Amino acid sequence: MVSMARAISNPNCKMRNSIFTPVKLLSFIGVFITTITVTIPHVTVNAQSAIEAWRFSQRDMNVGVRMTGMSIRGFAGFGDHGALYSNPAGLGYINDTQLIVSLRGQSTTGDSWRDQSGFDRSGARFRTDGFFPGQVSSSEETFQLGDLAFLYDVPVRQGKMVAGVSLSLVRDFSSRLEFIGENTQSSISSSFLPYDNEYTVDENGNLDQLDDLSFAAFNSGIIEYFRELYEDGKYPFLSAVIPGTSIDQSGLITGSGGIYELSGGIAWQASKTIMTGISLNVTFGRYDFDRSFNESDVLNENTSQAYNVLNDDDSLFEGFDQLNYNQTLDLEMTGFNFRAGMSAKVSEMMQIGVSIESPTWTYIEESYSEIFSTSFDLGGTLSYGDLPEDLGNGFYEYSMRSPWRLGAGVQFDFGNLTVTGEAEILDWGQLELSSDDDQNAFSNVNGVIEDEFGLAVNFAVGAELELGRTALRVGFSGRPSPYSINGQSNLTDAYTDNQLGASIGVGYMISQSIRLDLGVQFSESIPDLWEIYPSDAGGPRQDTIFEIDHIQNNNVILFGITMDI
Questions:
Q1: Does residue 194 sit in helix, strand or coil?
Q2: pTM
Q3: What is the bridge-based pairing of β-strands 4-7 and 30-33?
């Protein structure tokens, strides 16, 4: 059977002619596509889901070298520039004008686990039939500015006043997962086949309309329409990869970027034992995501007799070789919030503090793309999505509002030993997405957040021991899942969205005016679920799913210098 397909539609659609030739069957069909109706591009927009909105609203556990070493935020009132990011009243305990600079390194690695064969999967659990992973890699390293801060001890006649400005990295999005393996049971190409309600055929048996995902795959040579099958009362589409053939499947999923916060604040002594403070904060940053999936006919089982495509210029593409499905997502984010706090000396040994943080109102500009391509043994490559006007490419603007946050802490001073415990309360059910262009754009996502997200209590304990010029620090912290008791994670039962971390740190006074600090945060586990085969509101688009549970640990090291001016 020979099939020629021709796509002619609105200016957003690319044209091609194609021939699919199963062995020993010859005929010729013209398929004329006149209209493509598209509502929402199929591209997976990661920020536009409940769990991803939560992750973009999260910040790293600690800010600043000293607080990283102790795993704390400093809600009790801590004399460090990191107070600007928790309880700005803590600035009042700083006794000198200071300049702080720190560098931050992060190593993102996957939790190792072994399957029944004893093979080390390195942080990725594959849930699919027929795929056997051969190599899995999950590691990424970054090195960048951690903090740049200036604190000014304002000379006042009475009491205490300290002002400060600081730029700090509060979120790092670095991640990486790479894999390759063999599959004899399924192919991503089957996921691009349209459902019965996603295409129409005219009275002559020619293809009339096709939904966006299948249309893109059709124009890249991944699927084909056959009028003979339709006239015989059969499903009229076939995909490029012959069922049962052996193919290599490989993927690369990467994330990069981060969010910085520029904070300016002031603390003053309200009474002999009470410090108060406020800070105004601007967040800005970006997130870049790229996911590429490839299938290759390494054994050359999909021959030229099995698969041919005729292009518009009458050139012939013969024999399926490989296909690639690539998704990209680029976000630029700008937001603002404010904080206010109080810290009180209850006694010589005990200090308490509370702070409140407003929602962060974040404006997001998002660009996205999908590119489909099929390479052949002879003739070259067909692709779709590589032009700006192609379906799956676009730009979108929306806003996100995080919940209010209430923090409280208590600190005990035992001479040269300081011990701090603290908690932060927030209701993730208040998280909200919105769009000025469409008031109902996020009604479903916001409904999921309202129904499944709930109250969370972040906690931390830390200690600092001063031994002459040296300070030793240690801490432990945790951030529970945003899901309420009635909510459920998208991940398997083995993994949750709970995040735990432990830390150590050390500081050394080189002189009376210069201090060096080192802080290390271990194992902030972040889970991800990657659906490699396309899904939609109705679930997977074929019987076989291809999903990966990916657990990564973020180990952070900060090195900083504090200079009294």
A1: coil
A2: 0.85
A3: parallel
